Amino acid sequence: MELREIVLSLPTDRRMAETFLQSQGLRLEEDVEYTVVAVEGDRVVGTGSLSGKVLKCIAVEPALQGQGIASQILSELVHEAFRRGRDHLFLFTRPENETVFTPMGFSVVERMEKDLVLLENRANGFVQYLVALRNHREEVGVSGSVVVNCNPFTLGHRYLLEYAASRVHTLHVFVVEEDRSVFPTEVRFKLVQEGTQDINNIKLHRGGPYIISSATFPSYFLKEPSEGTRLYGRFDATIFGKRICPVLNITRRFVGEEPYCPVTSIYNQCLYDILPKYGVQVEIIPRLEKGGKAVSASTVRKLLSEGRWRETKDLVPPTTFEFLQSEEARPILDRLKKAPNSRH
Which residues contact 65 (CB under 8 A, 6 or more apart)? Predict the structure, then answer.
C-alpha cells in the first residue's frame, strides 16, 4: 500500500477520489485543497483531504479498516497542514469513527446526535476559548448576541447591531474570524469596532474557530446551498446554543433577514430551529432598505469594484468610508476589481 497525492485540477485524478468516496457513501467536498489516496496496485483503498484547517473526506475500505491505513492518511494530512503553517487542526467524522482518531491526538469538540463529531488536535482548545469568554459574562439583565462577517461593515450591519443593542442589557457581537473574505479579519473587526464605539452596551469578540468557521460550518463559504449546508448549520447552531450561550448567559440571538443569499437563509432557519432548545430566543430583523433594496455588503463590494463612490458613501458608516479611501484599503479594492462577485 502506498499514499499518492492526486492533482485536483485533473478530471481523471479527481474522479479517482470521488468514485471511492461515493462507494463509501461520502463525497469529495468542493473546498478541498489537497487530497491523498491510498492505493494497492491500481485500486484505491482509502483517501483523505485537507481544506484550510480542516481534515475531511477521510475514508478507508471497510475490509481494510483497523490496519493502520487511516493513521497513515491522517499523518500525511497533518504533515501537509503543518508545512502550510497550520497547527490548530479540526476533523469531521461520523460518531462510529471517533475512536479511530482519538488515539492519534484528536479530542472531541462536540457531537451532534448520530450525524457528526468534530475533533481538534488540542486537548483543551475549546475549553480555553470558553474560559476566556467567561471573563465577559454579565449577570445583570438580558444578554443577547449577534454574529456578523461585515465584508465590509455597512449601514445595514449598523442598523442590526443598534436595534439588537436596544433590546438587551448587554450585546455580545462576534465577528467571524475565518479569513476567506475580501476584507481581511483584522480590517473587518476594526471597522465594526470603530463603527459601533458609540453603542455602550456592545461587547465585541473575535469568533475564533468555533463560530461560523471552516470547522463548524464549512458550507457557509461555498457558493451553492446543499444538504451539507443544513447539516453544518445545525451543527454550528448546536455548538453556539449548547456551549457558548451558557458561558455568557446569552438568551437572545438576533439575525438579519436574508433576501439574497440562500446559504445564509438556510443557516438562519437552522438557528431558529435549534437555539430555542437551549433557552435562546431567535429574532429575525428585517434588513435596512434604501431605494427599495436591502443594504448589503455584496452591493457595496459591487459598487466599489465599479468605482461608484457616491453610491457607496450612502450605504456605509463614515468610519467605513474613511477606511475605503485610505492607502490601507487600496490592495483590497484592487482585489475587488479582479473578483467583484465574491460572496463573503
Answer: 100
Residue 221 has pLDDT above 70, yes or no: no
* CA distance to 78, 88, 134, 242, per residue, from 122 (Å): 13, 7, 20, 20
Task: For 38, list phi and psi in degrees, rounded to 5.
Answer: -95, 125
Phi, psi of 6 (to 5 degrees): -105, 150
Q: DSSP 3-state assignment of 171? A: strand
In whole angstroms, what is the distance from residue 21 CA to residue 8 CA?
Answer: 14
Say how far apart CA 173 and CA 192 lie, in whole Å: 9
In this structure, are residues 213 and 181 in contact, taking their beta carbons and an 8 Å threshold? Answer: no
Cα–Cα distance, 330 to 16 (Å, whole number):
42
Alpha carbons 276 and 280: distance in angstroms, whole number = 5
- When computed from its CA atoms, the radius of gyration of the chain, rounded to whole angstroms, is 21
Q: Where are the beta strands (DSSP E) in 65-219?
A: 90-93, 107-112, 116-120, 143-148, 170-175, 202-206
Bridge partners, 171 (sequence order): 144, 202
Q: How far is residue 17's CA from residue 87's CA, in Å, rounded to a whole number? A: 25
Residue 112 banded pLDDT, cuts 50, 70, 90:
confident
DSSP SS3 for 114: coil
> What's the pTM?
0.89
Phi first, then psi, for residue 196 (nearest 5°) are -125, 15
DSSP 320-334: HHHHHTSGGGHHHHH
Which CA distances in Å does 114 have to 68, 89, 147, 165?
25, 22, 27, 37
User: How many angstroms separate the CA atoms of 161 and 146, rounded?
Assistant: 7
The C-alpha cell that represents 196 in the structure block = 459601533
> Going from the N-terminus, what domains does the chain have, and what CATH number goes with each?
2-123 (3.40.630.30), 131-338 (3.40.50.620)
How far apart (Å, rounded) are the C-alpha atoms in residues 200 and 222?
A: 35
For residue 95, what pLDDT is reported?
Answer: 83
